[in-house]
Amino acid sequence: MQITQHTYRDVSQRQRDTLERLASERDIWVSTAHPDHGPHQVPLWFLWDGQAVWMCTGANSATARNAREEPRVRLALPDTADVVLLKGEAECFPAQKVPTEAADAFTAKFGWDPREGEGPFTYLRVVPKTVLAWRDEPELRGRVIMREGAWLA
Fold first, then answer.
1. Between vectors from CA 71 to CA 125 and to CA 37, what angle results, nearest 5°?
2. What is the pTM of this model?
3. What domains can you pick out in the chain, each with its CATH number?
4. Using one digit for the tens of pLDDT, what is the confidence trace for 43-82?
5. Average pLDDT over residues 27-39
6. DSSP states along 113-141
7. Cβ distance 15 to 153 under 8 Å?
8. CB atoms < 10 A from the CB of 91, how many?
9. Secondary structure (3-state) at 26
């Protein structure tokens, strides 16, 4: 195990770092739950539009079904040494009804347009209500950087 030293970041720096990662990263873990079947977690490609996370999955996938039944979701960027967790509610859009701006931006980022793909696809839009960010134990205190949809910095 390699131990790395991290400089403590204040809330403003954590917010800047989080926004940078949301703008630049490709994958995000999506956790949903079904009242009868329990939790479900998958990685999906995502797009950050400055206010919301956009993802796309098969319209009949467990993720889409769960989000339609229980919209509360958790999202996590895939780095356990630089944790970013988001909580919010998923809004589901059939691929043919997704706002054009979001679908075009998703296509530009990934080179794939679900509106033209085989089978039905659903876009999930999550506006974060809570965001937590920390690196290692010293940053556990004060890890909440967004509460009730408002950045704390």
1. 130
2. 0.93
3. 11-146 (2.30.110.10)
4. 999 999 999 999 999 999 999 999 999 999 999 999 999 9
5. 93
6. -GGGSSS-EEEEEEEEEEEEEESTGGGTT
7. yes
8. 14
9. coil
